[in-house]
Amino acid sequence: MSLAGEPGGRAQQLRQKAQEMEQAAERVTDPDERQQLKEKARQLKEQSEQESGKGPGDIDPTL
Predict the structure, then answer these.
(1) Helices (H), 1-63
(2) Could you tell me if 48 and 40 are in contact, meaning their C-beta atoms sit under 8 angstroms apart?
């Protein structure tokens, strides 16, 4: 069952994807690729905050 239909489910999926991208960034050796992955992860985190109704400065207790 997908979380996308549940309240906050999409935001959770975005946070999970961002975390996966950050982990991938730590594994790559190319600095340009690492930076791109980190930037995408940052964008996904911001999007998840918007989806969940939190501002960028709010603290997420699940992290």
Answers:
(1) 9-27, 31-52
(2) no
**What contacts 9, CB < 8 A, 6 or more positions away?**
2, 3
- Read off the tokens for 1: 């069952």
Using CA atoms, how far residue 19 sits from 1, 11, 38, 54, in Å, is 21, 12, 10, 18
30 exposed, middle or buried (CB, 10 Å; 0-12, 13-18, 19+)? exposed
pLDDT tens per residue across span 10-47: 888 999 999 999 999 999 999 999 999 999 999 999 99
At 28, list the tokens.
Answer: 């790559």
Q: Whole-model pTM above 0.70? A: no
